[in-house]
Design brief:
alpha/beta
């Protein structure tokens, strides 16, 4: 897996560098002298997620430095590697956005999950995200941090994402524009996406929004398949759980905003390489219901 990830990242970086001369983005890394290539730094960051290591420092010092010398013969110290992380943020984002997302033209699930970056009791003492993080509320209560909005296919493939502040509504236009960029067909969401205006706007774009209803709303008739798929929304909740508990998407050890972004993008990239993802299997007969 590590060879596959490195080769695909390296091919992307080679193509990206050909365009560097046309834009200013990325030139800072070229000026930075390091034995490790940009592709190697990105690969190590991606491989950390789902490695089972408690922290990235444990992974780098106990796994990479001691067991991966053949894969990365020009390793640098841990402190030096940390200095290189901010330079991977933009290429990680572009690699995820252009190479790892799939189009979903049939069945799509949408949801958001909180990314708390500090315990509520320590909010006033928190400094790293003082000017960017906000208080938000999820089904689990209040939190301080950000939200990750994602859309996935019935096979568990990632089709869109957007990182927002914690107090941003799931129905925000900018959020939906990014999350649903590759989506058409039927879109299944929870009660947080209920909005007549949103339903009409998405319908004009070829997307049929299907949600459950609140207790004070009139009952509506739904095809049997839609009812079944609404009950299968747990697929995206399972994916969010894997991103947090298996890939370390949410933690409070970030040293800077750029480190946080690099961690977020590399987490999503690592998930897209999972060989076995949460999925729903449907026969052609089921789809015609």
């Amino acid at each position: 897996m590590i060879t596959k990830i490195f080769c695909e990242i390296d091919d992307f970086i080679k193509d990206w560098k050909k365009e560097e001369s046309k834009v200013s983005i990325g030139k800072d890394y070229v000026k930075l002298k390091s034995r490790l290539s940009l592709s190697e730094v990105m690969t190590i960051l991606v491989m950390y997620h789902n490695s089972g290591s408690r922290t990235f420092k444990d992974y780098y010092t106990k796994v990479v430095q001691k067991m991966m010398n053949s894969e990365f013969p020009q390793l640098v110290s841990y402190n030096r590697f940390v200095e290189l992380i901010p330079y991977t943020t933009i290429p990680l984002f572009l690699f995820l956005k252009t190479k790892r997302l799939v189009k979903s033209d049939n069945i799509t699930f949408i949801d958001s999950t909180k990314i708390a970056i500090s315990h509520n009791k320590r909010i006033k003492r928190h400094k790293t995200f003082k000017n960017t993080a906000t208080r938000g509320k999820s089904s689990m209560g209040w939190f301080y941090g950000f939200k990750m909005h994602i859309s996935v296919t019935e096979k568990g493939e990632l089709s869109g994402f957007h990182l927002s502040k914690g107090n941003v509504d799931d129905r925000n236009d900018v959020v939906l524009r990014n999350v649903l960029e590759n989506v058409s067909g039927k879109l299944y969401g929870d009660k947080g996406y209920i909005s007549q205006k949103l339903f009409e706007n998405l319908h004009e774009k070829g997307i049929q929004l299907v949600t459950s209803i609140k207790k004070n709303m009139k009952q509506k008739l739904l095809p049997l398949l839609d009812k079944l798929l609404l009950r299968k929304r747990s697929i995206i909740e399972t994916i969010n759980d894997q991103l947090k508990n298996m890939c370390d998407l949410e933690h409070s050890r970030h040293r800077s905003e750029m480190d946080f972004l690099a961690n977020t993008f590399s987490t999503l990239i690592r998930y897209t390489y999972f060989e076995k993802k949460p999925s729903i299997n449907f026969s052609e007969k089921d789809r015609d219901m």
